[in-house]
Design brief:
By secondary structure, this protein is α/β, with parallel strands linked by helices. Helices cover 64% and strands 13% of the residues. A 5-stranded mixed sheet has the order 1-2-3-5-4, sandwiched between helices. The structure holds zinc ion.
């Protein structure tokens, strides 16, 4: 399996179950750049957990993301998963999202990349996008964060009742993490280009 080594962990890079010429084409620059990007992220945002990058199309990506999430929260009905996948796909399409970072199995973090969008947008965009997502992976590796994210997801999936204050806290945390990931994009780009 193609992979890139980082100081603290390994990044596995795969294409989705139904690879096309676009996923294959997008995989080349990802394989070439994942190592240097991860190195910059570890220096700027902290150690990465084991990361699996999946390069796929948008609809397949939404399904893969939902399956991973449902498995991380400990099960959700097919109906719930289909509903979530549809919502994820709609939101990705509406916001032109090129990537998602999710909890994977055990300590793993999953980064889903949308191949057609990445190919269209060029290398600078790829470095910024993958850098941004790997910052989210580093955030999920910080003490206690994986557990709190999991609790938020279990609330989202209706598996546990959560007080409304907890939902506000979760949203505020996500805003802070988004801000950090955006702010680090230029520094990651500069480090990889250096
Ligand atoms: Zn983000």
């Amino acid at each position: 399996m193609p992979h890139a080594e980082t100081a603290s962990n390994e990044i596995a890079i795969t294409t989705a179950a139904t690879p096309s010429w676009r996923t294959d084409l997008a995989a080349d620059p990802v394989r070439r750049l994942a190592g240097p990007i991860a190195e910059a992220v570890e220096r700027l945002a902290g150690a990465l957990p084991p990361v699996r990058i999946v390069i796929t199309g948008r609809a397949a990506g939404a399904w893969i993301a939902t399956q991973a999430e449902a498995s991380a929260v400990g099960g959700a009905s097919l109906r719930t998963r289909l509903g979530k996948a549809l919502a994820t796909w709609r939101s990705a399409r509406a916001h032109d999202a090129q990537a998602m970072t999710l909890l994977g199995d055990r300590s793993e973090v999953l980064v889903v990349l949308c191949a057609p969008d990445l190919l269209a947008a060029g290398e600078t965009n790829l470095i910024e996008t993958l850098g941004h997502e790997l910052v989210h992976a580093a955030q999920l590796n910080r003490p206690g964060r994986r557990q709190s994210r999991l609790a938020d997801l279990q609330g989202n999936y209706g598996l546990v009742e959560r007080p409304i204050a907890e939902s506000y806290r979760a949203e505020a945390q996500i805003c802070l993490e988004e801000a950090e990931a955006h702010e680090l994009e230029p520094a990651i780009l500069a480090a990889v280009r250096a």
